[in-house]
């Protein structure tokens, strides 16, 4: 992983050196401006270009706003440091932010005379839930922990095929143009996101997706959120399918009938329109009459779906604290919650491997 290290230089020189040393011992690549070879580019453009070529951005901020280029392309008079952060945000590169604690002792000669701009920037970064530091060693450890958690974080995908299966009242031939070649994504997305509401999920369609995911392989977990992306639960498609079949046994018969008629995986996409007819035959009434809506409460209470994830609130207690919290859990995944919204899912075993591997690399 290539990490871009961003900060003002004169006040944070020792901190930058400590971070770079720790990261390189842990076998990360580090890009930092003081190591640039001479090149015919204005510094603000060179730095932004390097940011977008990296896998992660680490921003460290104390009490200096930094150098403000006076070029024509910088009409808002933004510092190079803030331009680097903006480049990472614009390109959606993971940004890990570290702020000197407000109460930390800091030499006056390493602060701006006018603190207005740096205070404004720090306030903006705090709203992004930055971590905090007071010394070099603590900062280096926090950055390492943040990168390990980041590398172990997974994001559930919203698939177009899932959207079509949910919203289409009928899966007739007219919908085939929307579904063909999209079902293959079920085998490529390990984590698939499902939104419960405002459009309800029919039990018949949720079973269909779970069964198809199991047959196609690849999808490890279904992740359920509500309309505000609050985390509800997470379970493998085999668990979803089993619980739905226990509650509505006719679903299993309906899917078996459908799969017998679409004898090969390739025929599933072509013959998906047959599924509502198989449901009608199994339930002895049309799907839109036989179906029942699956609500957020049904997922764990009515269906008894076993949750594969525990939740951790991502606050301002630090990345080392977060890492320990995740490793101390027993569930396969930890859902990272920030301001009630799902931010990502950390695979506990993957994080444990990352921590062990990086520790061994530093000892080598």
Poorly predicted spans = 37-41
Overall outline: elongated
Whole-number total of structural domains: 2
The CATH topology of the largest domain comes to Rossmann fold
Mean pLDDT score: 88
Enumerate the strands of the largest sheet in spatial order, edge to edge or round the barrel: 2-1-3-4-5
Q: In the CATH hierarchy, what is the class of the largest domain? A: Alpha Beta
The H-and-E topology, N to C, reads as: EHEHEHEHEHEHHEEHEEHHHHHEHEHEEH
Q: Biggest β-sheet: count, sense, barrel?
A: 5 strands, parallel
C-alpha-based Rg, rounded: 25 Å
Textual characterization of the structure:
The strands form 4 sheets. Strands 2-1-3-4-5 form a 5-stranded parallel β-sheet, sandwiched between helices. With 364 residues, the chain is α/β, with parallel strands linked by helices. It has helices at residues 13-25, 43-52, 80-90, 116-126, 136-151, 160-167, 176-179, 203-216, 237-247, 250-261, 265-270, 275-283, 287-290, 296-302, 319-327, 348-363, and strands spanning 2-6, 29-31, 56-61, 95-100, 131-133, 153-154, 191-195, 201-202, 221-225, 231-235, 293-294, 309-313, 333-338, 341-347. It has 16 helices and 14 strands. It folds into 2 domains: 2-151, Toll/interleukin-1 receptor homology (TIR) domain (Rossmann fold), CATH 3.40.50; 160-307, no CATH class.
